[in-house]
Design a protein that fits this description.
By secondary structure, the chain is mainly α. It is built from three helices and no strands.
Length: 87
């Protein structure tokens, strides 16, 4: 009885550490994906690209989430509408 309680108390911190590591790497991957997406696809009109890259770099995950929901979706919506018009 005492042995199983000790096993659980040893496994739980390791499990939580692994889960938090996976979440951390996923968030890092999302941040890198948004940064690369911005660099590759954002227009050079004015300072749009520079401003968004700086927002993503300095605000990190929050900036990546804002870029994803505001700018990236708007750009994709415009691309889809222009593609359907040209068909």
């Amino acid at each position: 009885m005492e042995s199983s309680a000790q096993d659980i108390s040893l496994i739980l911190p390791v499990f939580l550490f692994v889960c938090m590591g996976l979440v951390g790497f996923s968030l890092l991957g999302f941040w890198i994906w948004m940064l690369v997406d911005c660099i590759k696809h954002e227009s050079d009109e004015g300072n749009n690209k520079l401003i968004w890259v700086l927002v993503i770099l300095f605000t990190q995950l929050l900036g990546a989430i804002i870029y994803f929901f505001v700018q990236r979706r708007e750009r994709l919506r415009k691309q889809n509408s222009s593609a359907s018009i040209s068909l």
